[in-house]
């Protein structure tokens, strides 16, 4: 009996290893550096630049001009600390004028510059797939965001395309001849300002419902503190533990 199963498996292996359905290797999401991964000096630099766009976003959204789209503000910064350009989401003109695409287009036009190698892009919210791709095409060295897509969608009930920026970034290995990912993503910088002061809780029943309010379809066991799928108290962990105990005990008899 076993030799037939082995033969079938061997044939299946031979057939499956003959060629690939996939034209290239599936990319792992690229690493996202978090504030804890940075030196104190680098973190201070990014926090100051994040504060600058957060302040602009707060001013424009809630004080000066009351433009809801200004929650998404982005800047282009030279590593010497100079902010070259700052702009906001101009969704009132076109729904693809997000903070990032807008600041790249406006700054390129202003400086007659088509590539941003050697520069950093700051954004109050993690980039959507369109903007992440734009930042990659534009050649930035680093993108630094405040509030993540998962927080915007799962916790604040904002409509989002559910692909995190580092999933797109992982596929950036096709952009250069070396076949590596060159754009560094630094996430969750100054979220203690961006999440409560720039963004709102748009969830139904919070009194802030707007055109982008959605009912999130997040996994019921999702937890922002879950690391690599394991939390000592997660239901998965408990189920796995119980299952192993049941198997272990049943093997005793
Ligand atoms: C925000 O508004 C305050 C008060 O009007 C002003 O002092 C500050 O320069 C503004 N900041 C930005 C980045 O627009
Ligand atoms: C910083 O870089 C910008 C853009 O390249 C340049 O215009 C500016 O002079 C530089 N400032 C310093 C202090 O080096
Ligand atoms: C990508 O590869 C090039 C060429 O080998 C190298 O110079 C560069 O440092 C690499 N960049 C990263 C981020 O790995
Ligand atoms: C946010 O956190 C930073 C440290 O990461 C701190 O310097 C800053 O004072 C905090 N701001 C607020 C409004 O809590
Ligand atoms: C709206 O959102 C803010 C910020 O998230 C929150 O503090 C507030 O309770 C929400 N509801 C109302 C009615 O403002």
UniProtKB/TrEMBL annotation:
> Which SUPFAM superfamilies does the UniProt entry name for this protein?
Cytidine deaminase-like
Keywords assigned:
Membrane, Signal, Transmembrane, Transmembrane helix
The entry's protein name is CMP/dCMP deaminase
**Where does the signal peptide begin and end?**
1-18
Which terms in the Gene Ontology molecular function aspect does this entry carry? tRNA-specific adenosine-34 deaminase activity
Tell me where on the tree of life, at the top rank, the source sits: Eukaryota
Q: Where are the transmembrane segments?
A: 232-252
Determine if Ribosomal protein is one of this entry's keywords: no
Please name one Pfam family that this protein belongs to: dCMP_cyt_deam_1
Q: Single Gene Ontology BP term?
A: tRNA wobble adenosine to inosine editing
Q: Which organism is this protein's natural source?
A: Heterostelium pallidum (strain ATCC 26659 / Pp 5 / PN500)
